[in-house]
Amino acid sequence: KPSKAQYFNNPMWPGxxxxxxxxxILYQGKSPYQEVLVFESSTYxxxxxxxxxxxxxxxxxxxxxEMVTHLALCSIPSPKNVLVVGGGDGGVLREIAKHDSVxxxxxxxxxxxxxxxxxxxxxxxxxxxxxxxxxLHVGDAVEFLRNSPxxxxxxxxxxxxxxxxxxxxxVEKPFFxxxxxxxxxxxxxxxxxESMWLHTHLIQDMLSICREVFxxxxxxxxxxxxxxxxxxxxxxxxAKEGPPVDFLTPVNPIEKIEGATKDGREMxxxxxxxxxxxxxxxxx
Length: 284
Ligand SMILES: NCCCN[C@H]1CC[C@H](N)CC1
Prior knowledge:
Order of helices and strands: EEEEHEHEHHEHEHEHEEHH
Number of strands: 11
Largest sheet: 7 strands, mixed
Strand order of the largest sheet: 7-6-5-8-9-11-10
Strand content: 25-35%
Distance between the termini: 51 Å
Radius of gyration: 18 Å
Bound molecules: trans-N-(3-aminopropyl)cyclohexane-1,4-diamine
């Protein structure tokens, strides 16, 4: 059991710690990559923790999964081939599946244990794997992307853990170059991009790398996720050179997705009013 002092030692957020009241430990184990913990909290439902870092909770996962997915997929007219890097819990798969234009969804997750644990304890996320368009690859995403055909994907979503440990190389230039190579001209990337309160230097580094690699434009967006440090998480929205992409003027009919309340496709966070507000702010 870590000492109280050790709680403040995470290099991603030194000097701060976050706590949730634990009702019951549901799973505790270790994969070749990380320690995996699932517990039932008193106020946020079930919680997934990897190497001591909260990855998602039942209550607020919708904000992250919807935003990291729809900010990208709503910015291109009709996404067909989509790749998820990481995302082993299945939440992003669930969100991608709401887009009828999508024909194939590849997912490359390095840790099979994360998938197995989410199957048992996060059914509302694991439902993403039920979609027949999903093809799961368990392995290293850098390797997977290197072997992917050039220009295969309309959109790539990098839903990784923090850039320490297994995900360290996912914020370096070679990785973004392999992403750009795998995207179609005018294809889009939505990439986890940490907190603007805590990681400004990392975000600046990622922005400058992405501005070199993605000539179609780079934007930083964020969402409120109360159980992430500082209560917000960011996303880098990048477009590969080609047909113009305007992230602030969604071309993919959001109403069509939101309107489809059939079979539980309603949104719990993302909505077109919100985007219009963003548009409005952007044009002030
Ligand atoms: N699909 C949920 C993945 C969560 N991604 C990360 C979890 C840890 C956070 N500090 C940053 C986002």
